[in-house]
Amino acid sequence: MQEAVVKSSSVTMISLLSACGQLGALEQGRWIHDYITRSGFESDISVQNSLVTMYGKCGNVDAARQNFEKIMEKDVVSWNAMIAAYAQNGCAEEALSLFDQMQFSLVKPDKTTMVNMLSACTQLGALQQGIWIHDYVIDRGLEMDVSVANSLVSMFAKCGSIEIACQIFDKMAKKDVVSWTAMIDIHAQRGQIYEVFMLFHQMQLEVHPNSVTLMSILSACAHVGSMQQGKPIHGYIIKTGFDLDSNLGSALIDMYSKSESLEGAHQVFDEMSRRDVVSWTAMIAGYAQNGHANEALMLFNQMQLVGMEPDTVTMVNVLLACTHLGALQHGKWLHNYTIRNGLESDVSVSNSLLAMYAKCGSIEIARHLFDRMVNRDVVSWNTIISGYGMHGHGEDALALFSQMQEMDVVPNSITFISVLSACSHAGLVSEGCHHFDCMYRVYCISPGLKHYACMVDLLGRAGLLVEAHSFIQKMPIQPDAGVWGALLGACRIHGNVDLGECIAKQLLEIESEDAGHYVLVSNIYAAAGRWDDVSRMRTLMKKRELKKTPGYSFIEVNHRTHAFVVGDRSHPQSVQIYALLENLARHMEVAGYVPDTKFVLHDVEEEIKEDLLYSHSEKLAIAFGLINTSPGTPIRITKNLRVCGDCHNATKFICKIVGRDIIVRDAYRFHHFTNGMCSCGDYW
């Protein structure tokens, strides 16, 4: 009778510890542990094993190990519990070491041991240890166990041996939903949409997919931006009655967003019965990554109003929205928010703050933040180097690159794009050529198309058009639209119509559906007064139903972003804006400003051209800023396209007349206008 009571109490303790482990309820688990000690149940090996498991699942690895060491006669469950505790808490090396100790004991590993060990190998990317365990599994006859085979598939795939993972999957006599999902996920991560759907159809002949399966398929659709493939999965989810929980709903939002269907994404978001930080962040990211920065910021405000606490991923995406808009005031508020909520120490948040300050025109604050960062990764260095490059401070960018190397931070492919771009903006031709040469010779990084495009831009901006063309012809890889586009842009800058025509033919053969290419060629013709060719380009665009991207200029005043387009009269303050521009025009004329009508791409009278120039979006935004900000404060403008030559010249006159610094970020770089001068030195 007493033995039955003790056994019953032991079972109760095990059940309670299991519940604490599942809930991550460490404090309650400790209380039960104290009770077990006082009540004399600690000698029961099943209770001891449960204590190890509970502490492991609650994240207290040290307590798990202490209790493991107290077990006098460890069985296979004891060893498995401790190995699992290490594997679950990212202590993969300790798990492998403990397995070695287990080998010296008289306890024989079982399939659970193998699953835990394979998990540890996966975390470490330890392919050689994984291969050894695979051989061990075969020797012990465990390879036919579904859970072991699934773990092998996952380990080999995540360690880069896709072919072996596929072979193991094909040999499996019995496959469960985890097997199929693992295989689908392998192809999904590689963007192999055909293989994903082929496996999905085969899977349905044997087992029913679960929500994780569907999330993997939606991830594949998002990877290639295929709403055509993703919508039927959405239909399948509705038809089969899957609960649109946070994870599945967020996967749908991500798929629609990356397929550029924000309407579909928001519809899913609205239909979700329960939203957590993941779903809110997915929707904010959808807006931010598709250029709808205002909507992203508005949604972030709504998120706070409903009491949802943002996490680091949320902050990264909200800061991205501020970066797109050049919304420095809002960005500073977010910076303070990250400090108040303890998020600034996260390296991804710090890197996003760096990018925000650099791309909102405050490179000094970005540098101060960079210097204060305790943990910097290669992204941190890339961001600050790129920031200096965008501001035209090429020498400072290269100094940082040297400092990066001195601190033994290994540059990556993106680092060299930042370095080469910085050289291009500053006209540092020989330095750029040197670093391009060092890419492979020193760091064994093979140049990609973006690196070649940077080199063409570097040579082309410097007026070395023949050299740039020759460089392209000697490329070991096929040049893409980015490479040819860089040379075409240089032809526009230097007015080389003949070479521009030659490059345009190459470019339009590669990418005939990009309206920007036709506009660039048209601009070259317009600058040369070849209006018939301009008309021909516009006719081609109409025939192919291509539309020019409209130029927008943004300015943030009192935490609100205002957008202007050329000739815009929709703003409530339009009368004051145009009156101020008219007044400024008189002062500019006295100071020596002459409108450069070659930047008007229409064959109209000179007087009309001058009127059109005065209504360019940059000038409207500047006038609005002058009206609505205090005297002496800088005016910050963000433009989605390259600033036009006349606006660049006019802004130099305006900044001197009004005694204000004007900072303009266009699609390529920053222009800091002070006392009639621009930081670019007219090299842009």
Features:
69% helix; disordered N terminus; 6-stranded mixed β-sheet; 684 residues; 36 helices; 6 strands; mainly alpha; single chain
Description of the molecule:
This protein has 684 residues and is mainly alpha-helical. 69% of the residues lie in helices and 4% in strands. It has a six-stranded mixed sheet, sandwiched between helices. Helix 3 (45-57) packs parallel to helix 5 and helix 21 (347-359) runs parallel beside helix 23 (378-390).
The span between the termini is 92 Å
Low-confidence stretches: 1-8
Rg, Å, rounded: 31 Å
Helix content: 55-70%
Strand content: under 5%
Structural class: mainly alpha
Widest beta sheet: strand line-up: 2-1-3-4-5-6
Principal-axes geometry comes out as elongated
Q: How many β-strand runs?
A: 6
Q: What oligomeric state best describes the polypeptide chains here?
A: single chain
Largest beta-sheet characterization: 6 strands, mixed
Mean pLDDT: 90
- Given the structure, what is the number of helices? 36
